[in-house]
Write a structure and sequence with these properties.
A 9-stranded antiparallel sheet has the order 1-2-7-9-8-4-5-3-6, covered by helices on one side. The chain has 2 domains: about 1-30; about 35-215, Multidrug-efflux Transporter 1 Regulator Bmrr, Chain A (Alpha-Beta Barrel). The protein is built from 4 helices and 9 strands, in the order H-E-E-E-H-E-H-E-E-E-H-E-E. By secondary structure, it is α+β, with helices and mostly antiparallel strands. The protein has helices spanning about 1-30, 65-80, 110-115, 165-180; strands at about 40-45, 45-50, 55-65, 95-100, 120-125, 145-150, 155-160, 185-195, 210-215. Helix content is about 30%, strand content about 30%.
């Protein structure tokens, strides 16, 4: 019996060690990857109103449902920053990877916005490191990838953890929209979904956000 408990103890300690390693890896990654330096205007729990500076993004457009589109968009963007298909040096990875549906009315119900559809088109973006001006970035080898400036903007954001399923995103988006309505703030354009972690990060350690630009 003593031997059984000893083996059980090693298993438990091994599990704790793996969990600690996962937390350490998550902390290192999230603290060593550049993120946009926004200013918080208002904070209410998991919801913030932020002022973002001008940004430069590399983007692709993909069709289909949300999950398939972000996966399809990731590969050409990764090929661009890691210089897989172009000349020049690689570009540092940043966070988050963002995704926004094209041409969608803000008055449509949240459940309709997140229904998968073959006609949906999604803009998937990598944010370029702040050290680069637009003219300093190497040109993409593929016409699929576009480099674009994004002007400064005030955005509302809600932060949440977990695996970013359509249901979870819809719930958080609804919370954010209700919060904006109570405060008389007007959303503008399509919501943006932001993913800060790789797919191997455990759900409870993931950082996800729904963001929406605010009208002046």
């Amino acid at each position: 019996m003593r031997k059984v408990w000893k083996v059980f103890g090693f298993v438990v300690l091994g599990g704790v060690g793996l969990a600690a390693a996962a937390v350490a890896g998550w902390w290192y990654t999230t603290n060593n990857v550049e993120q946009p330096k926004y200013a918080v205007v208002t904070r209410d729990g998991s919801i913030e109103v932020r002022d973002y500076p001008a940004l430069i993004v590399a983007e692709v457009v993909r069709g289909g449902d949300r999950r398939a589109a972000v996966r399809a968009g990731f590969s050409p963007l990764a090929n661009y920053i890691f210089a897989k298909e172009r000349e020049g040096q690689s570009i540092a990875m940043t966070a988050p990877v963002t995704q926004r549906r094209e041409s969608i009315a803000m008055t449509a119900p949240v459940t309709q916005r997140l229904q998968p559809g073959a006609d949906d088109r999604w803009v998937v973006r990598f944010i370029m490191p702040s050290e680069y001006a637009l003219e300093d970035l190497p040109l993409p080898a593929s016409a699929d990838v576009s480099l674009k400036p994004v002007p400064p903007a005030r955005r509302a954001a809600i932060r949440f953890s977990g695996v970013a399923t359509d249901v979870l995103i819809a719930e958080q988006e609804a919370r954010l929209m209700a919060w904006l309505e109570r405060r008389g703030l007007t959303p503008q354009g399509s919501p943006t979904y932001a993913y800060y972690n790789d797919p191997f990060t455990p759900g409870p350690l993931r950082r996800n956000e729904v963001l929406v630009d605010l009208a002046d």
